[in-house]
Every structure is written in C-alpha cells, then in structure tokens.
Automatic annotation (TrEMBL):
<keyword id="KW-0274">FAD</keyword>
<protein>
    <submittedName>
        <fullName>Ferredoxin reductase</fullName>
    </submittedName>
</protein>
<dbReference type="Pfam" id="PF00175">
    <property type="entry name" value="NAD_binding_1"/>
</dbReference>
<keyword id="KW-0411">Iron-sulfur</keyword>
<keyword id="KW-0001">2Fe-2S</keyword>
<keyword id="KW-0560">Oxidoreductase</keyword>
<dbReference type="InterPro" id="IPR001041">
    <property type="entry name" value="2Fe-2S_ferredoxin-type"/>
</dbReference>
<feature type="domain" description="FAD-binding FR-type">
    <location>
        <begin position="47"/>
        <end position="149"/>
    </location>
</feature>
<dbReference type="InterPro" id="IPR017927">
    <property type="entry name" value="FAD-bd_FR_type"/>
</dbReference>
<dbReference type="InterPro" id="IPR050415">
    <property type="entry name" value="MRET"/>
</dbReference>
<dbReference type="Pfam" id="PF00111">
    <property type="entry name" value="Fer2"/>
</dbReference>
<dbReference type="InterPro" id="IPR039261">
    <property type="entry name" value="FNR_nucleotide-bd"/>
</dbReference>
<dbReference type="InterPro" id="IPR001709">
    <property type="entry name" value="Flavoprot_Pyr_Nucl_cyt_Rdtase"/>
</dbReference>
<keyword id="KW-0479">Metal-binding</keyword>
<keyword id="KW-0285">Flavoprotein</keyword>
<dbReference type="InterPro" id="IPR017938">
    <property type="entry name" value="Riboflavin_synthase-like_b-brl"/>
</dbReference>
<dbReference type="Pfam" id="PF00970">
    <property type="entry name" value="FAD_binding_6"/>
</dbReference>
C-alpha cells in the first residue's frame, strides 16, 4: 500500500531562559507563574508544562492520521508501550485523550502518534480533520505499566489489533534500535489491507533477522486463533507476550494463555476499575445536544446514556483513558471516589460519574 508523502515543517526547539533568570521570573510573576505569560508569546516557550508542536503529518489510511510531534523542553521521555495524555482545544474547551507514542523510546526527541477517527469521536475526529503543521498540543508525562521491562526478556511476542498497533510497534522499533538478540514476533489484526497503518514498514521489519511479522485481515482471514499465533511464534509458550487491541481479541488471547497455564507470561493494559458511584434517589438527566431527558437510576452517566440510545465516545470504561469526557452544563454529580461537585461548565468523565440530583450534560 502506498503511503502519502509526508508533510513536514522545519522546526527547532526554542531557546531556554537561563535557570536563575527563569526562577526569579517565576517568583515575581506568582501566582500565575512565568509559563502563563510565556505561552502568550509562544506556547512552546513554557518551562514546566509539556507541550508538543506538530512538525509532520501523513494519512496512512482513510480514517487515520499520523502526527510527528516535537515536545518542549520539559519532556522527559517514555518507555516503549506507555501512553501520553494529549490535550487539544476544541471550541474553547480543552479535551484530553490518551495515545501511545508509536516511535522507538530511543528517539523521543520526536513523538509519533497515530490517531484513528472514530464515529462520534469528538477528539479523534477533530485531530483527523483539523491537525496541521504548527499545531500545539498539551502533553502529559508518559505513564502506564504496559511497557517493555528494563531487563529485556529472552523472547518477545507482540499481539495487536486495530489502533492497538501503536504501543507494540513502539516496543518493536525500540528492540530493533537496540539490536535485540532474542526472537521477536508480531501478530497484527486489521479489517482489510487498506486498514493497516504501517504496512510498508512492517514488511521492511519482517525482513530483519530474528523478527517475524504476520498481518491478518479479519474480513478475509477471520479473527484470532491459536494456529495464527503458532505460525508466527511457535515458541510463544516460553516467551513474554504483550497484548493490546479490541476486547474480543484480548479475551481470546487471555483464554488461550489461561488454558495453556501461562497467563503469567501475558501482559496487557490492565487497570483496576473503581466501583461506580451510586447517586442519591431521584434527579433528572438531560443530554442537551441530543434532546434526551431521563430519570436517573443511580448508575454511571455513560451506562444511562447508552440505555437511552446515545453513543457517546468512550474507551476503557474505568476512568483511565478520558475518552468519555463531556461538559457538564449544570447540576450536581458524584464521582467514584465519592466526591460531589455542583460546579457549572466543568468537564466530567461519564463512565465514573453519576447524577446526584438534576444534571444537564452537553452530549
């Protein structure tokens, strides 16, 4: 599959204030701090916040975009497989989503994010349609335990589906940069050949010694089977496996490893979900944009929205990925930690927030 020519902008990391001058300015400009003033001149001049400037972009598939982002001086790198919270401004409101850098951890002077536009996805569609050279994104420090361990395993299996390719590709690229001496195999699922975002690079990587890659197209090859895994990694039972993809793939691989008694070899994006909040009795929930008005039954707002026929964007359903963040226009809500808020025009996570009275959501 031909990949479009990369659009790239020449960019250089901005100069820094001398440490002593910067510290003095920070004290003099309290309570706002020097960053609040520097960003008025150039958002990339900030000293403590992490920002990233889009310096290249390409569209590897019809519904995805790959951004090359140059981070500001406060960036401290990442471990292959970790995620970064990326913030964009949409109609004056800051929206945050989690994306995994796809590049090698040894090349973190530039970050690479591939974002797939989901139907109804506020942030993913905005990035897909509006991203441009010079666009500035907010970045968090890298986080998450889904990452290559510092002590590399003797052999590695990577299994991914859809947009789950990004963290495992980061692992593969990192191992290649290190001239990893062990065996490494990647099994990747996409619906059709046109849906594979790194097709040409995967072909090139597969030609390397010690690297085996099988790309399966679910529309023609079907979904995960043990035979698929054995073909790409017949030694998988003694390897360390990293898995990232949609729930059906995750469930199928987990079941195989459990049946084989090797679940301890399998690493996934595992989080412990908080207990959903239970609101007080009564209260109405109005989803303003959709014109839907319901009586709250105490469950998380995401579940009630879905039962009402709405399809708000969501991801982990555990309060981790921020995909379900929406603006609360008014009303009182309670989070999974038991905290209540009556603040108007605040962002809330639908999956771990419930109504504690009448609530209006911009959804």
């Amino acid at each position: 599959m031909a990949i479009p020519t990369v659009v790239r902008r020449a960019a250089t990391r901005p100069g820094s204030l001398p440490a002593s001058l910067g510290s003095l300015a920070e004290r003099l400009l309290t309570p706002h701090g020097v960053d609040r003033y520097l960003e008025l001149i150039d958002p990339m001049l900030v000293r403590t916040d992490v920002r990233g400037e889009v310096v290249a972009l390409r569209r590897p598939t019809r519904d995805s975009i790959t951004l090359t982002v140059r981070p500001s001086r406060a960036w401290r790198g990442f471990a292959a497989g970790q995620f970064v919270r990326v913030t964009v401004d949409i109609d004056g409101v800051r929206r945050t989503r989690c994306y995994s850098p796809a590049g090698s951890a040894h090349r973190s002077g530039e970050l690479e994010f591939t974002v797939k536009a989901h139907e109804g996805g506020l942030v993913s569609r905005h990035v897909h349609e509006r991203a441009h050279l010079g666009m500035v994104l907010g970045l968090s420090p890298a986080g998450g335990t889904f990452a290559l361990p510092e002590q590399r395993p003797d052999s590695v299996v990577l299994v991914a589906g859809g947009s789950g390719i990004t963290p495992v590709l980061s692992m593969l690229r990192t191992l290649v940069d290190e001239r990893y001496p062990g065996e490494v195999s990647l099994l990747y699922y996409a619906r059709t050949p046109a849906d594979v975002p790194y097709a040409e690079e995967l072909d090139e990587l597969a030609a390397r010694r010690g690297v085996r890659i099988h790309v399966r197209h679910t529309a023609s090859d079907g979904h995960f089977t043990a035979e698929h895994l054995r073909r790409v990694a017949p030694w998988f039972a003694r390897a360390t496996t990293f898995l990232c993809g949609p729930p059906p793939l995750m469930d199928a691989v987990r079941a195989l490893y459990a049946d084989a008694g090797i679940s301890e070899h399998l690493h996934t994006e595992e989080f412990t979900p908080p207990v959903p909040a239970v609101a007080g009795t009564g209260g109405r929930i109005r989803f303003a944009r959709s014109g839907v008005d319901i009586v709250s039954d105490g469950r998380p707002l995401l579940e009630q929205a879905e039962d009402a026929g709405l399809s708000p964007e969501h991801g982990c359903r555990m309060g981790i990925c921020f995909s379900c963040t929406q603006r609360k226009v008014s009303g009182v809500v309670r989070t999974a930690s038991g905290e209540e808020s009556a603040e108007d025009d605040e962002e809330i996570q639908l999956c771990v927030t419930a109504a504690a009275g009448d609530v209006e959501i911009d959804c």
